[in-house]
Amino acid sequence: MPLPRTHREVRLAARPRPEGPLTTDHFEVVHAPLPTPGPGQVLVRNRLMSVAAAMRPLASADPGALGLPQLRHRVGEVMRGPAIGEVLSAPPDTGLTSGALVRHHSGWREYAVLDAAEAPPLDPDALPDPAAHLSQGFTAWLGVVRGAGVRRGDTVFVTGAAGGVGTLAGQFARLHGATRVIGSTGSRDKADRLVAELGYDAAVIRGAGPIEEQLRAAAPDGIDVLFDTVGGDQLRAALALARRKARFALVGALAAQLSDDALATTPISTLALIARGVTLRGISAYDHADAAPTYVREFGRALREGAITYPHTRLTGITQAPRALVELLEGRHLGAVLVEL
Known about the structure:
Elements: E1 6-12, E2 27-33, E3 41-51, E4 83-89, E5 101-104, E6 111-115, H1 137-147, E7 155-158, H2 166-175, E8 180-185, H3 188-198, E9 202-205, H4 211-218, E10 223-228, H5 232-240, E11 242-250, H6 254-257, H7 270-276, E12 279-282, H8 292-305, E13 312-316, H9 321-329, E14 336-340
């Protein structure tokens, strides 16, 4: 089948106001010339992409000034995000063949040109569903295993438990021996689903009363582990309930980022950290590439055995990508949000 001369891509049309929500009007879907691969480059047809809360464009005109270049989205430029694409053409020396699936970070468009090194092929036998390669499971696993070192008998508190990371973090915590797992979320419906579908023992709900009071009721003996994707008041509440030698894995800071101040601080008591011997560890997948094979083996085995589920919602068509991100930020979905292209 001949290639089209144009394809569709999603661009940032305008920045959200600091005091306003992100809407689909902040994006535009445009027709653009089909990209042409150069020497050493691969042409792929994107089949599936993911959206995540961290992709929300910031109101700041120069988010790169925050020292966090991954947050940079310039008006008029194509959005970016993880995707799975089908190879259409590739130089012979890359080892990539037509029809192979690759994972890359040039989603939000129907076709993409990539350097071969940016398009690692997927192992079709590693995970039972190719969509699982777009999960945020690696972040969840790292926080549980390397960040907090969850072990048998732990009481674990997962913030943002209904998101793409949190829905898997709680399940990994259970696999690694946690005896009680508590999550935070934004609605009673999601709280009920965390308990009924994902093995959480209890949930605290933002806006249903002080987080610390709710957490104290859910964990009257305190917590051993915090898996934190949010920061802010939830981090402070966790510290108030921390047992001696508690381990905190910090993998996200959505409370700050979604307020357009990604570097906003959270006041905490350093004396409490010292007195209780609490460990805080920031952890990023960029620093732990060596752990990826171990994670994939464990995740794949757990999925095949039914020990873990991968909650996600799929929307169809690239025109649905802005809606997917907006609905994710509004809390309409449980788990990951994917767009089939």
